[in-house]
Amino acid sequence: MQRMRDHWWWRPGARPGRRMLLWHLLVDDQPDVRALAGRFRERLAGVGGLDPVPDEWLHLTTQIVGFADEIPRDEVKAMTSAVAESFRTLPPVTARIGRLYFYEEGVALGVEPERALDPVRDAIRRGVAQTVTAHQLDDQPDWTPHLSVAYCNTDGPAEPIFEALADPPEPCRLTVRWAYLVEQVRDGHLYRWDTVAAVPLTG
Protein backbone atom coordinates (compact mmCIF):
# COMPACT_ATOMS: atom_id res chain seq x y z
CA MET A 1 0.00 0.00 0.00
CA GLN A 2 1.54 3.28 -1.16
CA ARG A 3 -1.16 5.85 -0.36
CA MET A 4 -3.75 6.59 2.29
CA ARG A 5 -7.17 8.12 1.70
CA ASP A 6 -9.55 10.28 3.70
CA HIS A 7 -11.68 8.16 6.04
CA TRP A 8 -14.36 10.79 6.57
CA TRP A 9 -16.52 10.40 3.47
CA TRP A 10 -20.22 9.77 3.93
CA ARG A 11 -21.23 6.16 3.41
CA PRO A 12 -24.52 5.40 1.61
CA GLY A 13 -27.45 6.46 3.78
CA ALA A 14 -25.27 8.18 6.37
CA ARG A 15 -25.67 11.87 7.14
CA PRO A 16 -24.82 14.25 9.98
CA GLY A 17 -26.64 13.26 13.14
CA ARG A 18 -27.99 9.95 11.84
CA ARG A 19 -27.27 7.20 14.33
CA MET A 20 -26.28 3.61 13.63
CA LEU A 21 -26.64 0.46 15.68
CA LEU A 22 -23.42 -1.53 15.89
CA TRP A 23 -21.85 -4.21 18.04
CA HIS A 24 -18.46 -3.19 19.42
CA LEU A 25 -15.81 -4.84 21.52
CA LEU A 26 -14.53 -2.20 23.94
CA VAL A 27 -11.34 -2.01 26.00
CA ASP A 28 -12.48 0.22 28.87
CA ASP A 29 -11.52 -2.50 31.38
CA GLN A 30 -8.14 -3.29 29.80
CA PRO A 31 -5.48 -0.75 30.76
CA ASP A 32 -2.72 -2.62 28.92
CA VAL A 33 -4.56 -2.28 25.61
CA ARG A 34 -5.29 1.41 26.18
CA ALA A 35 -1.65 2.00 27.12
CA LEU A 36 -0.52 0.23 23.95
CA ALA A 37 -2.82 2.39 21.85
CA GLY A 38 -1.31 5.43 23.57
CA ARG A 39 2.19 4.36 22.60
CA PHE A 40 1.11 4.06 18.98
CA ARG A 41 -0.47 7.51 19.12
CA GLU A 42 2.78 8.92 20.49
CA ARG A 43 4.76 7.43 17.60
CA LEU A 44 2.29 8.97 15.14
CA ALA A 45 2.11 12.39 16.79
CA GLY A 46 4.44 14.03 14.25
CA VAL A 47 2.63 12.65 11.21
CA GLY A 48 0.17 15.01 9.56
CA GLY A 49 -3.22 14.07 8.20
CA LEU A 50 -4.24 11.78 11.06
CA ASP A 51 -6.99 12.01 13.67
CA PRO A 52 -5.99 10.00 16.76
CA VAL A 53 -8.71 8.05 18.57
CA PRO A 54 -8.91 8.98 22.28
CA ASP A 55 -8.97 6.20 24.88
CA GLU A 56 -12.66 6.79 25.59
CA TRP A 57 -13.64 5.89 22.03
CA LEU A 58 -11.30 2.97 21.29
CA HIS A 59 -13.24 0.04 19.88
CA LEU A 60 -13.22 -2.99 17.63
CA THR A 61 -16.22 -2.70 15.32
CA THR A 62 -17.60 -6.23 15.21
CA GLN A 63 -20.87 -5.89 13.31
CA ILE A 64 -22.86 -3.04 11.80
CA VAL A 65 -26.56 -3.78 12.32
CA GLY A 66 -28.15 -0.83 10.54
CA PHE A 67 -29.52 2.67 10.96
CA ALA A 68 -31.19 3.12 14.33
CA ASP A 69 -34.21 4.91 12.82
CA GLU A 70 -35.00 1.83 10.70
CA ILE A 71 -34.94 -0.75 13.51
CA PRO A 72 -37.90 -0.97 15.93
CA ARG A 73 -37.23 -1.16 19.65
CA ASP A 74 -38.82 -4.59 19.90
CA GLU A 75 -36.34 -5.91 17.34
CA VAL A 76 -33.46 -4.36 19.28
CA LYS A 77 -34.65 -6.10 22.43
CA ALA A 78 -35.09 -9.41 20.63
CA MET A 79 -31.63 -9.12 19.04
CA THR A 80 -30.00 -8.46 22.40
CA SER A 81 -31.74 -11.47 23.92
CA ALA A 82 -30.72 -13.71 21.00
CA VAL A 83 -27.07 -12.68 21.28
CA ALA A 84 -27.14 -13.20 25.05
CA GLU A 85 -28.51 -16.69 24.51
CA SER A 86 -25.71 -17.53 22.06
CA PHE A 87 -23.12 -16.14 24.47
CA ARG A 88 -24.26 -18.60 27.17
CA THR A 89 -22.15 -21.28 25.50
CA LEU A 90 -19.25 -19.00 24.57
CA PRO A 91 -16.50 -18.39 27.14
CA PRO A 92 -14.34 -15.24 27.20
CA VAL A 93 -11.77 -15.17 24.40
CA THR A 94 -8.13 -14.18 24.87
CA ALA A 95 -5.88 -13.14 21.99
CA ARG A 96 -2.95 -10.83 21.31
CA ILE A 97 -3.44 -7.32 20.02
CA GLY A 98 -0.88 -4.93 18.64
CA ARG A 99 0.19 -6.37 15.31
CA LEU A 100 0.51 -3.32 13.09
CA TYR A 101 -2.47 -3.24 10.75
CA PHE A 102 -2.61 -0.67 7.95
CA TYR A 103 -5.68 -0.09 5.87
CA GLU A 104 -6.27 2.66 3.34
CA GLU A 105 -8.13 4.92 5.77
CA GLY A 106 -6.27 4.45 9.03
CA VAL A 107 -3.77 2.80 11.33
CA ALA A 108 -4.88 0.03 13.65
CA LEU A 109 -3.79 -2.72 16.01
CA GLY A 110 -4.47 -6.14 14.57
CA VAL A 111 -5.46 -9.27 16.48
CA GLU A 112 -3.63 -12.59 16.53
CA PRO A 113 -4.68 -15.24 15.81
CA GLU A 114 -6.65 -13.34 13.19
CA ARG A 115 -9.69 -15.63 13.50
CA ALA A 116 -9.65 -15.82 17.31
CA LEU A 117 -12.66 -13.53 17.69
CA ASP A 118 -14.74 -15.10 14.91
CA PRO A 119 -16.94 -17.06 17.37
CA VAL A 120 -17.99 -13.77 18.99
CA ARG A 121 -18.89 -12.18 15.67
CA ASP A 122 -20.62 -15.33 14.42
CA ALA A 123 -22.85 -15.40 17.51
CA ILE A 124 -23.71 -11.74 17.02
CA ARG A 125 -24.53 -12.21 13.35
CA ARG A 126 -26.83 -15.13 14.15
CA GLY A 127 -28.68 -13.00 16.66
CA VAL A 128 -29.04 -10.14 14.18
CA ALA A 129 -30.22 -12.40 11.36
CA GLN A 130 -32.88 -14.01 13.57
CA THR A 131 -34.43 -10.78 14.82
CA VAL A 132 -33.70 -7.67 12.72
CA THR A 133 -35.53 -7.02 9.46
CA ALA A 134 -33.57 -4.04 8.09
CA HIS A 135 -30.09 -5.37 8.88
CA GLN A 136 -26.88 -4.79 6.93
CA LEU A 137 -25.29 -8.22 7.32
CA ASP A 138 -24.81 -8.71 3.59
CA ASP A 139 -22.79 -5.48 3.35
CA GLN A 140 -19.96 -6.87 5.52
CA PRO A 141 -19.41 -10.57 4.81
CA ASP A 142 -15.72 -10.48 5.73
CA TRP A 143 -14.04 -9.20 8.90
CA THR A 144 -10.50 -8.47 9.97
CA PRO A 145 -10.69 -7.56 13.66
CA HIS A 146 -8.73 -4.39 14.49
CA LEU A 147 -8.66 -1.47 16.88
CA SER A 148 -8.07 1.81 15.05
CA VAL A 149 -5.68 4.24 16.77
CA ALA A 150 -5.88 6.95 14.07
CA TYR A 151 -8.01 7.74 11.04
CA CYS A 152 -6.75 9.54 7.95
CA ASN A 153 -8.32 12.93 7.26
CA THR A 154 -6.73 13.51 3.86
CA ASP A 155 -5.38 11.66 0.85
CA GLY A 156 -1.62 11.27 0.90
CA PRO A 157 1.43 9.00 0.90
CA ALA A 158 1.69 6.18 3.40
CA GLU A 159 5.48 6.46 3.76
CA PRO A 160 5.47 8.88 6.75
CA ILE A 161 3.32 6.43 8.70
CA PHE A 162 5.59 3.53 7.81
CA GLU A 163 8.59 5.52 9.00
CA ALA A 164 6.96 6.54 12.28
CA LEU A 165 6.08 2.92 13.05
CA ALA A 166 9.20 1.24 11.72
CA ASP A 167 9.82 -0.13 15.23
CA PRO A 168 6.31 -0.58 16.65
CA PRO A 169 5.55 -1.28 20.32
CA GLU A 170 5.19 -4.87 21.49
CA PRO A 171 1.70 -6.41 21.42
CA CYS A 172 -0.21 -7.23 24.59
CA ARG A 173 -3.06 -9.50 25.66
CA LEU A 174 -6.70 -8.75 24.86
CA THR A 175 -9.47 -10.60 26.66
CA VAL A 176 -13.02 -10.23 25.35
CA ARG A 177 -15.56 -10.75 28.13
CA TRP A 178 -18.39 -8.56 26.83
CA ALA A 179 -19.86 -7.30 23.58
CA TYR A 180 -21.61 -3.94 23.46
CA LEU A 181 -24.57 -2.88 21.37
CA VAL A 182 -24.21 0.86 20.79
CA GLU A 183 -25.97 3.71 19.03
CA GLN A 184 -23.14 5.51 17.26
CA VAL A 185 -22.98 8.92 15.65
CA ARG A 186 -20.22 10.63 13.77
CA ASP A 187 -19.22 13.85 15.54
CA GLY A 188 -16.79 15.75 13.33
CA HIS A 189 -13.75 13.51 12.99
CA LEU A 190 -14.75 11.21 15.84
CA TYR A 191 -17.18 8.39 16.51
CA ARG A 192 -19.21 8.68 19.72
CA TRP A 193 -21.89 6.36 21.04
CA ASP A 194 -24.37 5.57 23.75
CA THR A 195 -24.38 2.00 25.04
CA VAL A 196 -27.71 0.23 24.48
CA ALA A 197 -26.72 -3.14 25.98
CA ALA A 198 -23.67 -4.93 27.38
CA VAL A 199 -23.82 -8.69 26.89
CA PRO A 200 -21.35 -11.02 28.71
CA LEU A 201 -19.70 -14.14 27.33
CA THR A 202 -20.70 -16.63 30.00
CA GLY A 203 -19.92 -20.05 28.53
Structure description:
One of its GO terms (molecular function) is ligase activity. Keywords: Ligase. This is 2'-5' RNA ligase. The chain has helices at 31-44, 73-87, 118-131, 159-164, and strands at 3-4, 20-26, 50-52, 59-67, 93-103, 106-112, 146-152, 156-157, 172-176, 178-186, 191-200. The longest helix has 15 residues, at 73-87. With 203 residues, it is an alpha+beta fold. The chain has a single domain, classed as Cyclic phosphodiesterase (Cyclic Phosphodiesterase, Chain: A), CATH 3.90.1140. The mean pLDDT is 95. The chain contains 4 helices and 11 strands, in the order E-E-H-E-E-H-E-E-H-E-E-H-E-E-E. Helix 2 (73-87) packs antiparallel against helix 3. A hairpin with a 4-residue loop joins strand 10 (178-186) and strand 11. The strands form 3 sheets. Strands 3-7-6-5-9 form a 5-stranded antiparallel sheet, with helices on one face. A 4-stranded antiparallel sheet has the order 4-2-10-11. Helices cover 24% and strands 35% of the residues. The radius of gyration is 17 Å and the shape is globular.
